[in-house]
Design goal:
By secondary structure, this protein is α/β, with parallel strands linked by helices. It is 40% helix and 14% strand. The protein contains seven helices and seven strands. Strand 5, helix 5 and strand 6 (179-185) form a beta-alpha-beta unit. Helix 1 packs across helix 7 (215-225) and helix 3 packs parallel to helix 4 (105-126). The longest helix has 22 residues, at 105-126. It is globular.
């Protein structure tokens, strides 16, 4: 495990799935963690109880990632409750799978707001609080690089935007010692993306490992990148995809 003692982290959109596992990992590694959630108050409370069982400080902050003002305020709240900020993990995301002709503009705008604008807003608000060993970790998707089927065009576009933002900010913030990296999960087994069924079986055929990953596979990479000893890694896209893109 990475030693994250004394580190203070904010994870967005983390009441369940990959985000919740990231919270568990960072807390287990010694960090104090704040995380945002949308409507899943019961799941957020359950995660706080679980992650604090061993003495870690974990707090939940309600925020709609589609609302820029709420995103900005969640960063302020995290700083206030944790006493500062060292690590920002932009995990919140939404996937709307629909062909271009039936994709409504409202769906497009919401997906863009959560997957791209919220990432920009959170980083913009967090940067003034990050010192020379600050870490920004975006959770993108391998669909930024590979789109294996129809209906993913708009989603892939948003994740490609995150990859581009990561590279640009790595250049901009590098002189200040702040690293910016993009973790790109492939098929990961969650409630919203089960590893069984017709779609899952077809996806497994495209992967070198022949199986779905687990949220802990992503959380392990995030925990590593959040540490103090990874200051020479920046602007990178880390594929956690079981060989989906090889």
């Amino acid at each position: 495990m990475t030693n994250l003692q004394g580190r203070r982290a904010l994870v967005t959109g983390a009441s369940r799935g990959i985000g919740a596992e990231i919270v568990r990992r960072l807390a287990a590694d010694g960090a104090s963690v704040a995380f945002t959630y949308g409507r899943s108050a019961a799941e957020a409370e359950k995660l706080v109880a679980e992650a604090t069982a061993n003495g870690a400080k974990v707090v939940a902050i309600q925020a709609d990632s589609a609302d820029a003002e709420q995103v900005a305020k969640s960063v302020d709240d995290a700083v206030a409750q944790l006493g500062g900020l060292d690590v920002l993990v932009n995990n919140a995301g939404v996937a709307v799978l629909r062909d271009i002709e039936s994709f409504s503009l409202d769906e497009f705008d919401r997906q863009l707001a959560i997957n791209v604008r919220a990432v920009f807003v959170a980083i913009q608000r967090a940067v003034p609080h990050l010192d020379s060993d600050g870490r920004i970790i975006n959770i993108g998707s391998i669909n930024a690089d590979r789109v294996p089927g129809p209906g993913l065009a708009a989603y892939a576009m948003t994740k490609a935007a995150v990859a581009g933002l990561t590279r640009g900010l790595a250049r901009e913030l590098g002189p200040r010692g702040i690293t910016v990296n993009n973790v790109q999960p492939g098929p990961i087994a969650t409630d919203m993306n089960p590893d069984e069924g017709e779609f899952a079986e077809s996806a497994k055929e495209l992967m070198a490992m022949g199986r779905y990953g687990h949220p802990s596979d992503v959380a392990g990479v995030v925990g590593y990148l959040a540490g103090r000893d990874t200051g020479y890694i920046t602007g990178a896209n880390w594929n956690v995809d079981g060989g989906f893109t090889v």
